[in-house]
Amino acid sequence: MARDELVTGNVWEQYSKKVQDRMNNPVAMGEFTQEDADKAGAKLIVADFGAESCGDAVRLFWLVDESTDTIIDSKFKSFGCGTAIASSDAMAELCIGKKIDDVVHITNTEVEAFLRDDSDQPAVPPQKMHCSVMAYDVIIEAAAQYKGITRDDIVNADIICECARKTRKDLVDAIREHQITDIDDLIKTTKAGSYCKSCIKPGGHEPRDVYLVDVLADTLETLENERLTSAAETTESGANSFDKMTIVQRIKAVDAVIDEYIRPMLVMDGGDMEIIDIKENIPHFDIYIRYLGACGSCASGSTGTLYAIESTLRQKVDENIRVLPV
Amino acid sequence: MEVYLDNNSTTQMDPRVEEVYIDNIKKFGNVNVIYNKGIETRALLNSAYDTLYEGIGAQDADDIVITSSTTEGNNTVIKTFLHEFLEGSEKNHIISTVAEHSSIKAPLKYCKKMGMDVTYVGTDINGLVNIKEIEEAITDKTCLISVLIASNETGAIQDIKEISAIAKKHGVFMHSDGAQAISRMKVDVTDLGVDYFSFSAHKFHGPKGVGGLFVKGGVPYNTLIHGAKNVMGGKRAGSLYNNGVAAMATAVEIANINLPFLDHTTQTLRNKLEDELLKIADTKSYVPRVKRLKNLVAISFRGVEGESMLWDMNENGIYISTGSSCSSEDLESSAVVEALGEKVEIANATVMFALSKFTTEEDINYVIEKVKSSVERIRSISMTYAKQEAFTQFVEDH
Asked: Is the ipTM of this complex over 0.95?
């Protein structure tokens, strides 16, 4: 208990605009019949998950192109609250154009992320997350039906470490949550790979299709792409902070300030400067510079001028900047 | 347009009650002071008490303890018996019902934790408790029977008079949670034969934060709020909410005067709403009208989940409540509605329309129109209302 829990919150007020819009006007709501499937030359899949007695139930309809195992169209019907309807709608839409093997990786957290208005703001409050769980379950149900196998076959197929029963999702979640970059940390944190060790990398006791190192590399690549996209998006909106910038963005930001506030002052005295490198030295950002022209021999280069450059950059760019002449 | 039909949760203050509430704010003197500043407060409270005693049929030998709410009154009664038990009483058993509000169920859960026994008697398909079952549950150890007079969710009205008679016959004390009583029926605690009766002003167009607990003269009472002994004879300490008490008394008085209006106008509007909604296919309302609060319709539309119905109603400015699990804190559907003997899925589809004296015919016409269109919309999304034939055919084919 604390101040922010004293006035009861309203879950509806915490819904994103996208959740509200999809509740009011779901885009993928509807049904397919065998006739629709015949017309499209596709296989019809109809899968159910949940029950009215639990308060939520969803039915997913797919038209699947059997030559490519691709879902060419997808619709849903749902008995449930606003969150259940909105997440079913988003889930059905996310299935369109995907291959069966890819679609089984769509999780409810992904559906939730898709429903966000702002990447930092959850689309629904935590207590409503359970209403979106079925979005994942019904996809597995539909995929199992298409492949003529059981749910368990699909869920188990995703297991990377058989000894510790860790799925790709468990590993990806751990890498994200604990910011793991190293295979040993991944093993230590998740316990995956700590028993027979076959799943760590090729060359172990038994050969595998996918190894922990692959999952780590894939995930790091995804995270890096996400970081770049987010950096690009936030720069566009003018809201990026120095610590979130890529190295190129940092150089540009520092150079812009030097151009505007520092260089004119140096040039007046017949000198100049250039940036050699920017290093992250937590909690500091060390900016290595070289003086050019008259500045190179000026005594103030390590005192007054240096102080002026550093304080300007701290004020205009980031307060943790240190400037080091080389 | 905005239509408030959640009047069993809380109500709008009556303008006449509001006037009393505001006019008496200035009478800030504490009732228990020895100097003259208490005179006007004493006059105010004496007059309010006269109205309250008359309004609910209490006798001079009885107490009406001013509380903050029905919840406090309920807690006071139940914990009176918990304290007796903790102080060594042999009586460790309380009988209540599945239809109770959380302000009864939660303190009873606490009593259980402290070592007492609790029996919850079920309700039948009409939401009524089985009185025979109550009698059968009584043992030598039973100290209290607590049964709500009417459910806020189903509106089912219990026969408190008969249950009180049984309690008396067995030497057991009788409490009734009367939150839904005043303004919805004539209340006479003496006639009901109860030992304790709790109520809240905000349920009958009075202010929030004030309620009353009727305690029959001579029955056990242990204070919940300890403090100064010179406020309400030490039965509940803390400076009194003077203008709140005065406003509550006025609200009781007006509620009684308005009972004929409830009978001919509010009830008629309720009936119109119910009749019209029942014309929608696969719709069912609960509890026969003669056994139900005159201002309430509890109804389910097959295939329409309760919270999604609330959503669509809210989009249209209509405020109602539901027994659906989705909208509850613990994700459990309403035990009270489930107790009607209905399947859980029906509890998840049940919504309640609770009218008040401020509800107009225009409001009801608007609600009827919007419910019809919303049910149609949500059913178009609903899988449980999808074309069953197509699905059955599909299942057969595969």
From this structure: no
